[in-house]
Specification:
Immunoglobulin-like; 2 domains; 4-stranded mixed beta sheet
């Protein structure tokens, strides 16, 4: 499919649904629908719970991962919380490879649910609290990119005991299944030569591989080019991934961090994803 040059048109989003006092709010934007939900429908003092932001993409659109690549804007959330509440960093699902015009990018074409852990203070005397989240994203298709912004407000009652929203808890469980996990059996080292970084991974799961098909390394750091065909070599039980620095990469890079996608043979499922992090020699 031919891809047209992105236009400079900005899509103006309008609210889709907002229910006061609900543990869920939806917002219809250009290219996607954003839904924020709390897995807790009432909050108890000291409780830790998850708030989920689901991006449901319209046909032909994608949004961006924490490292989008050369182009694109990652989804972000700025929290405004009641006194004593704490929010963790955004927890990202495993990414997908996508395309913006001629550029290879990392993002999501299928629906994606991003998680944030919220912790309530032990001293909680209010009858209810309001969680405010200023969310931003970029939804792109073959011909346009549309930045989206919305401030979500979730009003939750306070109780002695937390009540859970069953549907949202199932959503969070499914999203957690799409998170990369460290695999202790894998050992990684990395070295630099000129503008190239050589990442080597070995261990029992690598030794079980018969071929390199299905393998891919998604860098979490926006220092490397997203090559259409990633340079990967599998030899004598060692997997070598060669990454090329971008022109805007910092002069000094001290580590390599990312997600290694495994083929079916390793996981017994459609695919498996391992979190890889190592210092750069």
């Amino acid at each position: 499919m031919k891809r047209a040059l992105p236009s400079l048109l900005i899509g103006f989003a309008i609210p889709f649904l907002m229910e006061a006092g609900a543990a869920e709010e939806k917002f219809e934007g250009k290219g996607l629908r954003a839904t924020m939900r709390s897995e807790a429908s009432t909050i108890a003092p000291g409780q830790t719970f998850i708030v989920a932001l689901t991006l449901s993409h319209h046909p032909g659109y994608h949004s961006y991962w924490k490292n989008p690549g050369t182009v694109g804007m990652p989804t972000g959330i700025i929290w405004e919380l009641p006194q004593g509440f704490e929010a963790g960093e955004l927890i990202w699902q495993i990414p997908e490879r996508s395309k913006m015009f001629k550029y290879d990018v990392y993002g999501y074409e299928t629906n994606a649910t991003l998680l944030t852990e919220i912790k309530a203070p032990r001293n909680l005397t209010q009858d209810s609290i309001v969680l405010k989240a200023k969310a931003s994203w970029m939804a792109c298709n073959d011909s346009s990119c549309n930045p989206g912004y919305h401030t979500f407000e979730l009003k939750l009652p306070v109780s002695e005991k937390t009540a859970w929203a069953r549907g949202t808890r199932e959503l969070v469980k499914a999203a957690r299944a799409r998170l990369p996990k460290p695999i202790p059996a894998l050992q990684a080292t990395a070295s630099a030569k000129g503008n190239k970084i050589r990442l080597q991974i070995e261990g029992k799961p690598i030794q079980a591989l018969q071929e390199k098909e299905g393998l891919y390394f998604f860098s979490m750091l926006n220092h490397y080019k997203i090559d259409p065909e990633q340079k990967i070599r599998l030899k004598k039980g060692i997997l070598t991934v060669t990454l090329s620095k971008t022109d805007y990469a910092p002069d000094k890079i001290d580590r390599v961090k990312g997600i290694l996608r495994f083929p079916v043979e390793i996981s017994g499922k459609d695919s498996s994803f391992a979190l890889i992090e190592t210092k750069l020699d």
